[in-house]
Amino acid sequence: MGFFDRLKEGLSKTRKNLVEKVETVFKGRKIDAETLEELEETLIVSDLGIRASTEIVEFLREKARKGEMRDTDSVRDFLKQEMTAILGASRPLSLSGEKPYVILTVGVNGVGKTTTIGKLAGRFVSEGRSVLVGAADTFRAAAIEQLEIWSQRAGAQLVKHESGSDPAAVAFDAVEAAKARKIDVVIIDTAGRLHTKSPLMDELKKVRRVIDKAFPGAPHETLLVVDATTGQNALKQAEMFHHAVGVTGIALTKLDGTAKGGIVFAIHRELGIPIRLIGVGEGVEDLRDFDSKEFVEALFS
Description:
By secondary structure, the protein is α/β, with parallel strands linked by helices. About 50% of the residues lie in helices and about 15% in strands. It has 13 helices and eight strands. The protein has an eight-stranded mixed sheet with strand order 3-2-4-1-5-6-7-8, with helices on both faces. Helix 1 (about 5-10) packs across helix 13 (about 290-300) and helix 6 (about 70-85) runs antiparallel to helix 13 (about 290-300). The longest helix has 17 residues, at about 200-215. It starts with a helix and ends with a helix.
């Protein structure tokens, strides 16, 4: 099965929650104020967010007024077009000329951060790049062990300290080691933290500052890993982490297990942060660059 087919399969729950519900709204009915209001409610409940939902309905209302919307098929085509426009051009994770290229990964507990790092490391190594992983999640001893297993599997080097060490010190040492060893990519893990806990977010800010001291201008990517199954809470997480450390990209995991994939549109429309990567399964090959056109096509297929 190719990735597009896996993506279609992975989005099946979101399709039922979003596309099929939208089609039900218009089935056998004319496009009027009542159906448009119902559409807006459906889009919001499907996790597209208020801003994206309102914009889509306003555009559709204008199209209907001009007589350009006559049936369910024309509404479906319009929605595909507008949803693709909301996501804009794809902006996948792209390594610049910086060496080492430093990626700081952040997120709350249980989103699949360590797994995402392991898969990314494997991908870069397979592309012929040298990779070093910094185990700055010193809060859980199991996290260091898990990252060690992933690093070995990927063929990446690992810098770690004892459990309970200062995360910023680990991040600093990882970047310094990468510079000395002429490593291509550094991926820094951090402890999963509740975005509502100020001391933990302050610690993350410290990690970011220390990385910049070790290599001015780094991190070059601050990647927020988000669990798609959390829906609108994912938007709140993105807002808080972005405010704290300036998120530059998002890796959206567990899309295959949720009906809340519409959150992709809310995050991009509300915050303008590009979705870099999506995960639609457990395999290494199931973490892929996000392609906005492919995503919408799979959603409507």
